[in-house]
Design a protein that fits this description.
single chain; mainly beta; Jelly Rolls; ten-stranded mixed sheet; eight-stranded mixed sheet; 1 helix; globular
């Protein structure tokens, strides 16, 4: 995949580059879904070429509030469907996932609930039914490769979680607040199912079956970023040290 393409959503800053900048503006749409769910498509989206520093393919730099009945989509494109990836998000929640829903999805591309090729999880991070942070992907055949934190994090405090997968050494890693929390080593040749056309969805399951939306998250998300390659442990630590200084 060409790492020179970057998508920035909801950004409040201006990036100055020495290449041509293509601005694609999308209108904000609010669509009524079953059970009064609402979907916000964030705008504007800036797509630009940049030859240095391998910028993220998705970047959101403002706090988004989720009430348990809304979600936000980043429209599907080849750039946000990588084989190797890094997903980073800050979250703040005190929701009780246990006894309410199976999982509360912070963000996911592809979604959960199917083992059909093109309908599996490309990547995602969620809170499980014990409020622990989980993340991972599914293969085109529906095989699951997940990692989960030891502790629970629905404590009303801001936390950063980062999920990385490098398809060369086949390492899947989960970080919490800049520290490695869990590792999974899929067998050689394992790749995520990145052929689906589902959006990158924040706050709910990306896969909608029979019009039913599930896994809604209640809380806040901030500084959402996706790269089409795996950051190193040192890069994750540096990212946390930088972003932890941002007032929230």
């Amino acid at each position: 995949m060409d790492k020179s393409s970057t998508t920035v959503i909801g950004s409040s800053f201006v990036v100055v580059v020495v290449v041509v900048v293509l601005f694609l503006y999308l209108s904000l749409t609010i669509e009524k879904e079953p059970e009064n769910y609402t979907n916000n498509v964030l705008h504007p989206i800036e797509i630009f070429a940049q030859e240095e520093n391998n910028p993220p393919v998705v970047k959101n730099a403002k706090i988004i509030e989720f009430t348990g009945i809304n979600y936000t989509d980043v429209i599907n494109s080849r750039d946000i469907s990588p084989s190797s990836f890094t997903v980073s998000v800050w979250f703040n929640t005190a929701m009780n996932v246990t006894g309410q829903i199976g999982n509360a999805y912070l963000l996911n591309k592809g979604g959960f609930g199917s083992d059909r090729p093109g309908f599996n999880l490309n990547y995602g991070i969620w809170l499980n039914n014990r409020e622990k942070v989980s993340g991972g992907f599914e293969t085109p055949n529906g095989d699951d490769y997940f990692v989960t934190s030891r502790g629970s994090y629905a404590d009303g405090v801001w936390h950063n979680t980062v999920l990385t997968f490098d398809d060369v050494p086949n390492l899947l890693k989960l970080y919490i607040d800049g520290v490695e929390a869990a590792t999974n080593m899929p067998k050689i040749g394992t790749t995520p199912d990145n052929t689906g056309k589902q959006p990158l969805r924040l706050g709910a399951n990306s896969l909608v079956e029979k019009g039913i939306i599930n896994g809604n998250y209640t809380g806040q998300l901030d500084d959402i970023q996706v790269w089409d390659y795996a950051l190193t442990k040192e890069q994750v630590a540096n990212l946390f040290n930088t972003e932890s200084k941002i007032p929230r």
